[in-house]
Amino acid sequence: MSRLVVVSNRVALPDSSQNGGLATALDAALKEAGGLWFGWSGKVARGHSGELHRTSAEGIDYLTIDLSREDYEGYYNGFSNRTLWPLLHFRLDLVDYNATTQAAYRGVNALFAEHLAREVRDDDVVWIHDYHLLPLAQELRRRGVRARLGFFLHVPFPSADIIAGLPHHEKTFGALAAYDLVGFQTERDLERFQDYIRLFRGGQVVDRGQLREQDGRCFRANAFPIGIDARGLSALAGNAMRIASVRRLQSSLGSRALAIGVDRLDYSKGLPERFRAFERFLDRHPDQHGRLTYLQIAPVSRGGVASYRALRQELEQFAGHINGGHADPDWTPVRYVNRTYPHATLTGFYRLARIGLVTPLRDGMNLVAKEFVAAQDPEDPGALVLSIFAGAARELDGALLINPFDSDGVADAISTALKMPVEARRERWQSMMTRICDYDIHAWRKDFLRSLEHARD
Ligand code: ADP
Fold first, then answer.
1. Residue 16's pLDDT is what?
2. Which ranges of 265-366 would DSSP assign to H, the alpha helix?
3. Of residues 89, 154, 326, 343, which has the active-site annotation?
4. ipTM for the complex?
5. Residue-range domain boundaries for the chain
6. Separation of 226 CA from ligand 1 center, angstroms?
7. What are the DSSP calls for 16-75, one per residue?
8. Which atom of ligand 1 is least distant from the CA of 299?
9. Do 4-227+441-453 and 230-438 have matching folds?
10. Spacing, Cα 58 to ligand 1 middle (Å)
11. CA dihedral of residues 178, 181, 182, 187 (deg, nearest 10)
12. How far is the CA of 302 from the centre of ligand 1 (A)?
């Protein structure tokens, strides 16, 4: 078995309590084959980028690098979060392009490559993650790295016409052809990528998994829908009533049903649209008045970016507006919380909910949708209201699928979920649970790594 090298913007160090499912899966893969995890340390240095920190635990080496303030602003806050994130989520209107941050992005990728080239051996398998590092393979190849290089995009891949809105897009997206294997969340993302390669690089789709460049070089691209640790989360949820905050939430609800949303405060998550739909539900279903409480947990994210600050303000006003118009002295329809919780607590919250609201305008996968399913009580599971624009909708056929832009449709789905008999909920839940257990986070990483090992066969 080849040694594995994982590269991601942030490294999940072994002592961090915040490590989620992906970190656990990558850790397990690194432990199996022995390996190295490389990425930004999360530290912003006073002077230049480049100071390295090396540590190891349980057979895994961790190598992290500090970034200068300038690189952090340009590469991370700038090109990654202000340019690529909105572009990849189909929001050309929010794309903030400038040549300086683009150069910083390229510079940090080159810096990563400079250090990695000294570490990577020819027979290693290198797995690079997400939109921060699109051109890394190209930079590594320039430095003579011959190892197999794989890339997984955790976010959506938009249509070629949207990508074309980014000035000099070929420099960033054309660089994906330097990998041996490029992985996407869904078949649709894969098709849009194939379309981009055809249109803008004159490439050809040779067969379902293989693309040929104009110069004849071939590389692979495929869909690998990311999973979660479904059995682990289900067990956590089964024990979550031991957690005081879960018990307090339950007793605060009384006999009322709970609808829950859990999302980073991000414009891709469709939160104002969801609030609007919930208000529509209250307007259109006076018979349900006082019977449902909607808890929205939305930890603040990327507070340094103006569009995120504006969204936060909008939601605060909206929650106040809905409660002002609909609340009773003993019932608050919307509970709006900007905190993060340990995973065990979240699973308990999910399990208490009759309805899970997952209504992003665009999402690569949306892990919350899968976590909600895993956390349900098999005897009395809640119903999932899920956006057709989340990658998860391709797998979770037991959800009530909605268009998040259609507030009447979402309001109706909330009402349907609330009235759904337990037999129907069980049947829908069972088919979703089977899927997320069959192709869980470990099946996903094994599938990707097997494909990468054989990418050149
Ligand atoms: P994204 O990666 O865009 O944030 P996902 O739904 O794919 O969206 O993943 C979000 C992850 O963050 C999930 O694992 C979810 O449990 C976690 N998360 C979201 N909100 C919170 C919160 N308030 N506290 C703790 N974890 C959270």
1. 67
2. 271-284, 306-326, 343-352
3. 154
4. 0.98
5. 4-227+441-453, 230-438
6. 14
7. -TT--HHHHHHHHHHHHH-EEEEEEEEEEESS-S--EEEEEETTEEEEEEEEEHHHIIII
8. 23
9. yes
10. 27
11. 140
12. 14
Q: Above 80 in pLDDT, residue 177?
A: yes
- Looking at this protein, which amino acid is placed at residue 359? T
CATH of span 4-227+441-453: 3.40.50.2000
- Is there a catalytic annotation at residue 129? no
Fold of 230-438: Rossmann fold (3.40.50)
Instruction: Please tell me if the CB atom of residue 297 comes closer than 6 angstroms to any atom of ligand 1.
Output: yes
Place of tokens 């996407």: 184
Between 12 and 155, the higher pLDDT residue: 155
pLDDT of residue 248: 98
294-314 pLDDT, tens digit each: 999 999 998 888 899 999 999
Q: How far apart are CA 241 and CA 244, in angstroms?
A: 7
Task: Tell me, yes or no, if 406 is annotated catalytic.
Answer: no
Q: What is the pLDDT of residues 347-401, one digit of tens each?
A: 999 999 999 999 999 999 999 999 999 999 999 999 999 999 999 999 999 999 9
Kindly state if the Cβ of 229 falls inside 6 Å of ligand 1: no
d(CA 25, CA 30): 9
pLDDT per residue as tens digits for the range 66-121: 999 999 999 999 999 999 999 999 999 999 999 999 999 999 999 999 999 999 99
By the 8 A CB rule, do 39 and 64 touch? yes
Ligand 1 atom closest to residue 341's alpha carbon, by position in its atom list: 24
CA proximity to 127, closest of 151, 109, 147, 144 = 151
Residue corresponding to tokens 């990577």: 120
